């Protein structure tokens, strides 16, 4: 069969057992597998079922000595594309393979057209028309169909999980699970059990076997949120899992292959974390295959208007209340505000205004005091009045934030522009919430 298919210009290979086939497929993706229903180690139907779980693209053709309806139903249930009754001639096999190839070509063309159609439409969950957000959506579309690992960066509240979900929803994995976990919310031992699973008796409360999230995600997407908070000892184990594409449940001697695609996210500067030995450099390069940076809300005021109106419509529809409008004076205050909590803070602000509103028009007086009374003072003033001038500390913090905005929160570039190392920049950002009145401390820190 192999030689006959090769003579007909197919790239064909032959192995002697299902075990050998599975080992071969671990290293070599194929389009079609032809298997006899009766094999020594694993049945042909079980082999096809395993292929369906591991490689959705692969089509299985089962050879059987019984051409009954029951056998055909069993083959289809196992995930086989077609079955052939013995005796098998090369002509019959070639027809079956040709049909499978045509089916694959049609399925891939449909997938390509879906992507092309989607590219002409906005992503419903990611709102905005600014150049920064358009760059994000363009990158989402480009990377969605590949199995490549993606690292989503951005400040807290910018919508990094929405980006991960959009990548999943635009891919062929959309019908598979999307599984998310916050890596900073669990202690190391519990995080390891959640990710990799455990077997019964592995520890005190392990009363039964449990699949970890890598396996639960199937051929879908596993989203590791706040990966920068992951303990260093877990980073070592995660690196090995990503390299081998296998997980070993706690207490087990057997490894389990997984097919999920990994998307990670962080609001930390991982380059600085590497310098401070809080994040492994080899793991960083493993997850940072395709980086996507989500810009802060303050850098795209035009999108803020779109988001504010969207949240009003969404919350009013959810609560069953009449739609309200946002007055221009309130909108100007929203645009002028700094939004340290980004989109999440804006959503909470709109929800608060709607909960406490007294009319069908939301005005400046309906805004929370922190936003209504916010004033962005200029760095330099024309009048030179003492009450409008800034301390050196405040001036430094404002300039650092401005540089970070211009570099899209790339702290390596920002540190280079500021003339300091990343460690010093990180320390300044950690102290950003604490205002000082001494000018000498800032000067010595720069030196």
List the topology elements.
Elements: H1 2-7, H2 18-27, E1 32-36, H3 44-54, E2 59-64, H4 69-77, E3 82-85, H5 90-119, H6 131-144, E4 150-153, H7 160-169, E5 178-182, H8 188-196, E6 197-198, E7 210-211, H9 213-216, E8 221-225, H10 232-244, E9 246-247, E10 256-257, E11 261-266, H11 270-275, H12 281-287, E12 290-293, H13 301-319, E13 325-326, H14 328-336, H15 342-356, E14 361-362, H16 369-372, H17 392-406, H18 411-418, H19 422-430, H20 440-446
Parallel strand pairs: 1-2, 2-3, 4-11, 4-12, 5-8, 8-11, 13-14
Antiparallel strand pairs: 6-7, 9-10
Helix pairs in contact: 6-7, 13-14, 13-15, 18-19
Q: What does this protein look like?
A:
This protein has 447 residues and is of the alpha/beta class. The chain has 4 domains: 2-115, Rossmann fold, CATH 3.40.50; 124-293, P-loop containing nucleotide triphosphate hydrolases (Rossmann fold), CATH 3.40.50; 298-372, Helicase, Ruva Protein, domain 3, CATH 1.10.8.60; 386-446, Arc Repressor Mutant, subunit A. Helices cover 48% and strands 11% of the residues. The protein has 20 helices and 14 strands. The protein has helices spanning 2-7, 18-27, 44-54, 69-77, 90-119, 131-144, 160-169, 188-196, 213-216, 232-244, 270-275, 281-287, 301-319, 328-336, 342-356, 369-372, 392-406, 411-418, 422-430, 440-446; strands spanning 32-36, 59-64, 82-85, 150-153, 178-182, 197-198, 210-211, 221-225, 246-247, 256-257, 261-266, 290-293, 325-326, 361-362. The strands form 5 sheets. It has a 5-stranded parallel β-sheet. A 3-stranded parallel β-sheet has the order 1-2-3, sandwiched between helices. A two-stranded antiparallel sheet has the order 6-7. Helix 6 (131-144) packs across helix 7, helix 13 packs across helix 14 (328-336) and helix 13 packs across helix 15 (342-356). Residues 381-385 and 433-447 have low confidence and may be disordered.
């Amino acid at each position: 069969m192999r030689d006959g298919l090769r003579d007909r210009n197919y790239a064909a290979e032959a192995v002697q057992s299902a075990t050998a086939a599975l080992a071969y497929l671990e290293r070599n993706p194929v389009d079609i597998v032809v298997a006899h229903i009766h094999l020594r180690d694993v049945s042909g139907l079980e082999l096809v079922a395993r292929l369906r779980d591991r490689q959705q693209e692969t089509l299985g053709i089962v050879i059987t000595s019984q051409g009954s309806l029951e056998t055909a139903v069993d083959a289809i249930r196992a995930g086989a594309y077609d079955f052939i009754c013995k005796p098998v001639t090369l002509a019959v096999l070639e027809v079956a393979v040709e049909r499978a190839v045509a089916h694959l070509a049609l399925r891939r063309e449909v997938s390509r057209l879906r992507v092309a159609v989607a590219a002409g439409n906005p992503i419903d969950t990611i709102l905005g028309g600014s150049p920064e957000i358009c760059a994000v959506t363009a990158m989402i579309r480009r990377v969605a169909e590949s199995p490549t690992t993606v690292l989503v960066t951005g400040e807290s509240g910018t919508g990094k999980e929405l980006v991960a979900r959009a990548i999943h929803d635009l891919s062929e994995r959309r019908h598979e699970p999307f599984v998310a976990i916050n890596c900073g919310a669990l202690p190391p031992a519990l995080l390891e059990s959640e990710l990799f699973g455990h077997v019964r008796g592995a520890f005190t409360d392990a009363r039964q076997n449990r699949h970890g999230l890598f396996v639960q995600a199937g051929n879908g997407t596993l989203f590791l949120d706040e990966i920068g908070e992951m303990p260093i000892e877990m980073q070592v184990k995660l690196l090995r899992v990503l390299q081998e594409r296998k997980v070993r449940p706690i207490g087990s001697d057997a490894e389990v292959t997984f097919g999920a695609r990994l998307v990670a996210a962080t609001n930390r500067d991982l380059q600085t974390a590497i310098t401070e030995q809080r994040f492994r450099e080899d793991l960083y390069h493993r997850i940072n295959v395709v980086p996507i940076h989500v810009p802060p809300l303050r850098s795209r005021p035009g999108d803020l208007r779109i988001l504010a109106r969207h949240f009003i419509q969404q919350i009013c529809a959810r609560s069953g209340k009449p739609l309200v409008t946002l007055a221009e004076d309130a909108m100007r205050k929203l645009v002028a505000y700094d939004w340290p909590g980004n989109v999440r803070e804006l959503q909470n602000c709109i929800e608060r205004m709607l909960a406490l509103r007294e009319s069908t028009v939301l005005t400046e007086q309906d805004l929370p005091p922190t936003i209504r009374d916010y004033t962005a003072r200029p760095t330099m003033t024309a009048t030179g009045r003492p009450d409008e001038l800034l301390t050196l500390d405040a001036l430094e913090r404002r300039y650092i934030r401005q540089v970070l905005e211009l570099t899209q929160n790339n702290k390596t570039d920002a540190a280079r522009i500021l003339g300091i190392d990343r460690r010093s920049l990180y320390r300044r950002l950690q102290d950003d919430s604490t205002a000082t009145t001494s000018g000498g401390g800032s000067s010595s820190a720069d030196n």
